[in-house]
Structure formats: structure tokens, C-alpha cells
């Protein structure tokens, strides 16, 4: 049985064409989740979008 997160991500991918996501580097559960559904790390930023010191991992859907 699929969880709600997997179902929501699948909808975002199929209905909205989502192929990229940013994940807080300090959140290993989120990183693992996105890796399990087919995303891979493509880059890193030392700060978040507001310039705060929360490093982000940039991820892209493989085979997209």
C-alpha cells in the first residue's frame, strides 16, 4: 500500500510535471523519501531561498 506522501508526489509528477525539488540537507527522512521515488541529488546550496543558513540539496527526477 502506498502512503499519502508517495501518492501526492506521484500526482505532482504526473499532473503538474514536477521534476525538481529542494530538500533541507538536515532532513535525512525527506532525502530518503525522494531518493526512493526516483529523485537524485544534482546540487547543493549553503543557504535556503531566503538566505538563511539552512543548506538545501537540489534534486531532479531521474529519467524525466
Description:
It is a single chain. The protein is α+β, with helices and mostly antiparallel strands and 64 residues long. 34% of the residues lie in helices and 28% in strands. The protein is built from 2 helices and 3 strands, in the order αβαββ. The chain has helices at 4-16, 28-36; strands at residues 20-24, 39-45, 56-61. It has a 3-stranded antiparallel β-sheet, with helices on one face. The radius of gyration is 12 Å and the shape is globular. It starts with a helix and ends with a strand. 9% of the residues are buried.
The whole-number mean of residue pLDDT values reads 96
Order of SSEs = HEHEE
Strand content: 25-35%
CA-atom Rg in angstroms? 12 Å
> How many DSSP H or I helices?
2
How many strand elements?
3
List the topology elements:
Layout: H1 4-16, E1 20-24, H2 28-36, E2 39-45, E3 56-61
Short structural description:
This protein has 64 residues and is α+β, with helices and mostly antiparallel strands. It is built from 2 helices and 3 strands; from the N terminus they run αβαββ. A 3-stranded antiparallel beta sheet has the order 1-3-2, with helices on one face.
Q: What key phrases describe this protein's structure?
A:
alpha+beta, globular
